[in-house]
């Protein structure tokens, strides 16, 4: 059974549940296509209301001490943890990931609230040695203002908390626009934010199908001072363009094309385990999932044999079934895109080592493609599905050239037992994050983000508060 007190079907603005419209849109279970909810389809006016409410609440919220804000964030964290099982069930219903993964996401998402509840107390300024005896120089940090956060469907809880926790901790107010694929999780934690004691207007969630218009309003509003977005590079570029006239601060976590390099001195068993978790989590539907496996020719056959053996063990099915490891793809278009990658790879010389077939209209077999080459579409495009393509290389220089031959620069991984190689390769990889003998790198204590066309800004860690703050320089003169 699920706690129905966490189920809501309308926007949450200024501490109230919206009654603006009777129009609705459907939310589907991606594992079977069943309608699980009908959500009130608010139009652009709800975004304007939310921005106004957030702007009005900003003065009161930013005026609280860091400790006062921290206590409310801590209460929110506690409530999310107490409702972990129900939140996980909602998540599995609407995005399809296995229940075990959903439980893990609730913990992971809550960890950002816990971290920033403390980190918000540490937004220190500086006293700068003056150039004159008659002057004193000081810097202070102040919250930037109203924040617009736009989040994707693949991590419907963690992508929200990773953005809003630092914003709220530093004194900003927020307007969240979650994906229309997964609004239920966002609305559930909005309810818990109300229970935690956030003042009206501090945390707002707007839901509706018209993502382009809602995003445009957030970007063009003079009241919104910061945009944080996770999604495709194409949309990120559009939002950046729309924000140009108001010169907003922006955090963009965009597309990826992660390489996973296996050098000849790698611990192959450890590399295989790292490959599994970095490729097939959430059926390959994460921004840091491996896109290309680059394996040294001397260990290629052994790695492939071990890797394929593990892939064949994966249990596929509805996320509600215990021990299921691969759930459905989010919708029909995602499945069709996966099929297109497979057909293209076959036509260009790829060898299907396992999988390669659609199970039904919701699920695709975990697939491994051998003898991959750079002519294949999956070399240059983000796969976002349970497909692993394996390339060969012969030298370190070739591996680095292949790894960096992409416009993206989010996450990368490699395995080697040579400490000198580890340092040199880590420094040479053109990515914001590097996993060294590790396939699972996301944590609230480390900075998450990319370079090049994978975006700008960092989320998590001590660096995660900086994009929500303005530095103010104070010069005290005539001190004689």
From TrEMBL:
The lineage of its organism: Bacteria, Pseudomonadati, Bacteroidota, Flavobacteriia, Flavobacteriales. It comes from the Bacteria. The keyword Oxidoreductase applies. Pfam families: Aldedh (PF00171). Residues 17-473 form the Aldehyde dehydrogenase domain. It comes from Flagellimonas maritima. Belongs to the aldehyde dehydrogenase family. One of its GO terms (biological process) is gamma-aminobutyric acid catabolic process. This is Succinate-semialdehyde dehydrogenase (NAD(P)(+)). Its EC number is 1.2.1.16, 1.2.1.20, 1.2.1.79. GO terms for molecular function: glutarate-semialdehyde dehydrogenase (NADP+) activity; succinate-semialdehyde dehydrogenase (NAD+) activity; succinate-semialdehyde dehydrogenase (NADP+) activity. Keywords: Oxidoreductase. PROSITE patterns: ALDEHYDE_DEHYDR_CYS, ALDEHYDE_DEHYDR_GLU. InterPro entries: Ald_DH/histidinol_DH, Ald_DH_C, Ald_DH_CS_CYS, Ald_DH_CS_GLU, Ald_DH_N, Aldehyde_DH_dom, Aldehyde_DH_Superfamily, Succ_semiAld_DH. It is an enzyme of class 1 (oxidoreductase). The active site is at residue 253. NCBIfam families: SSADH.
């Amino acid at each position: 059974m699920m706690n129905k007190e966490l189920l809501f079907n309308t926007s949450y603005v200024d501490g109230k549940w919206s009654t603006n419209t009777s129009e609705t849109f459907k939310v589907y279970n991606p594992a079977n296509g069943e309608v699980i909810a009908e959500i009130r389809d608010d139009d652009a006016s709800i975004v304007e209301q939310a921005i106004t409410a957030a702007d009005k609440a900003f003065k009161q919220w930013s005026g609280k001490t860091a400790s006062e804000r921290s206590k409310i964030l801590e209460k929110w964290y506690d409530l999310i943890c107490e409702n972990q099982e129900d939140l996980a069930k909602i998540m599995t219903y609407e995005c399809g990931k296995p229940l075990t993964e959903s439980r893990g996401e609730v913990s992971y998402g809550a960890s950002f609230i816990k971290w920033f509840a403390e980190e918000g107390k540490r937004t220190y300024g500086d006293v700068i040695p003056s150039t004159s005896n008659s002057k004193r120089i000081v810097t202070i940090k102040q919250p930037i203002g109203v924040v617009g956060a736009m989040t994707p469907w693949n991590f419907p809880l963690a992508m929200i908390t990773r953005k809003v926790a630092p914003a709220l901790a530093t004194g900003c107010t927020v307007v969240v626009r979650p994906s229309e694929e997964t609004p239920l999780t966002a609305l559930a934690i909005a309810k818990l934010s109300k229970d935690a004691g956030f003042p009206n207007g501090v945390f707002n969630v707007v839901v509706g199908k018209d993502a382009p218009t809602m995003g445009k309003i957030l970007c063009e509003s003079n009241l919104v001072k910061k945009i944080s977005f996770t999604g495709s590079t194409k949309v990120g570029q559009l939002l950046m363009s729309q924000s140009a006239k108001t010169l907003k601060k922006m955090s963009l976590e965009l597309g990826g094309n992660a390489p996973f390099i296996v050098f000849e001195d790698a611990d192959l068993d450890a590399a295989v385990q790292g490959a599994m978790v970095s490729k097939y989590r959430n059926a390959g539907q994460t921004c840091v999932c491996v896109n290309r496996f680059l394996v040294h020719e001397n260990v290629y056959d052994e790695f492939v044999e071990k890797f394929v053996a593990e892939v064949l063990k994966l249990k596929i099915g509805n996320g509600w079934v215990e021990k299921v490891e691969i759930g459905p793809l989010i919708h029909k278009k995602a499945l069709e895109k996966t099929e297109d990658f497979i057909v293209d790879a076959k036509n260009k010389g790829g060898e299907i080592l396992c999988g390669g077939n659609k199970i039904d209209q919701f699920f695709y077999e975990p697939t491994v493609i051998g003898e991959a080459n750079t002519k294949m579409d999956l070399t240059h495009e983000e796969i976002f599905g349970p497909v692993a393509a394996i390339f060969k290389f012969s030298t370190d220089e070739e591996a680095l050239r292949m790894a960096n031959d992409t416009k993206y620069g989010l996450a990368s991984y490699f395995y080697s037992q040579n400490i000198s190689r580890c340092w040199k390769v880590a420094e040479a990889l053109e990515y914001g994050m590097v996993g060294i003998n590790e396939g699972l790198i996301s944590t609230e204590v480390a900075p998450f983000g990319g370079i090049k066309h994978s975006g700008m800004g960092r989320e998590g860690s001590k660096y995660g508060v900086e994009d929500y703050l303005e530095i103010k320089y104070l010069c005290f003169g005539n001190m004689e």
